[in-house]
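Table 4 source record.
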Amino acid sequence: MTRLSTPSGPVHGSSLEADGTTVHRFLGIPYAAPPSGAHRFRPPVPVPPWTEALDCTAPGSAAPQNPESPAPPGARPRTWSEEGCLNLNIWTPGTDGPARPVMVWVHGGAYLLGANSDGMYDGARLAAAAGVVLVSINYRLGALGFLHLADLLGAGYEDSGNLALLDQLEALRWVRRNIGAFGGDPDNVTVFGESAGAAAIGTLLGMPASDGLFRRAIMQSGTAERYRRPEDSARISAGFLGLCGLDESTAKELLTLPVERLLEAQAALERRLAAETFAVPLPFQPTVGTPSLPVPPLDSVRAGLNSGVDLLIGTNLNEGSFAVEMRPPAAGDPDYPGRAAAVLAGAGVPSAQASGYPQALARVLFREPAGKELLEAAIADTVYRQPSNRLLAARQLAAEDGSTAQGGAGKTFAYLFTWRSPAMGGKLGACHALDIPFVFRHLDAPEAAFLTRGKAPEALGYAMSGAWAAFAGTGNPATAGLEWPEYGEARSTLVLGDEIRLEDDPRRELREFFEAVRPLPAR
């Protein structure tokens, strides 16, 4: 089965063996018209149908992006193009029998980097082992996906700050129309992603246009709070204009500048922001107060939008370790407590209350935290863990208030990933992105070798990939060998490490600290 007829047109793919199972793959399928020329900085347009068989044996182009510096060990250079970047890949075990659950992967990369062709996201093994149809999508990145131009260019550009998300919605519409031809069930779609991919999903949960496009969502190290107000996005846009050598009077030249010029300005903006923050700079983020994202996503979730969607969400224990360990100080003894206080202040923790954070962390650790440990935990909590907790709380409040979709509230499950990487003498711990090869069953991949060192427990990988697939199929991640209750009032959380165990409200003291200083607004 290497040729299929779909509603969009015929496609020609290839087949391979994955863990003893034949999997059919179709790579680089366009889901929207090229976002170049007259379509630059505009919402995606559905791809016109084609009549000749489309060669889908090689990945499509990534979205325009600057190279990673430094690139992760094992990473391969990405080929990008503005012309053909809105494409997706599909892996399917076949079209026979009942329609299969569909899992749609949204890659991460700080909204600046990444591609569906990255080796770690190859879906063959997960599709084979779980019997699912796996889809991975590309979307516009950086300035091309998030530059807020409503004030500068006017009509037609009101949503230019959310194009990456609109691309994802268009990809999901394409999946709904076409996935049946690949053996998938269009009524049983799970979106899942990590880091910026998970943040995108958290934002999609708060976008009215997403209603009905997916039944379930998995957020790995994500948040529903990664956005900017229009005035903040406008300041970023003004700074970007200056780096392009433009101003308000010449802003329309953005529509025709070579994409390489845009990337040069983007890199300069990243360097400027990196000098101002110890955490990962995030120059481009979605904009609220816009047609597609009228209010902050968490507010929409709190009000019941997408409350019928089943949600599985979690973080890694040491999300901030890369920021601490991979950016060592130039000289001297760094003021880790001061940097941690700055991270907390940037997350809205009043300075008068910030001193309570080390005390809360000490109660979790049963000892005083070391300097690096304090900074790493502050980054992990402010950027990842506590935003996840607030999303969980918003879902609970919506359910308690009856703000649910027809058919009742969706189920909610939580996890904490704790397996420690042996890399760098164990300094990275359960670091950001370490969970990805476990989910995709790529613990032996070259891209995973730096973090796993060949020591990752296969049993944990089998348990995680099996749970993710079970959740996609039924809305419940429990399997024959894995008990996983809903989050609920007990805040039941599955701890995924050398030992897999249930724990109610892990690191409770830190959650309570943030709830006291940043309470979720009443509806």
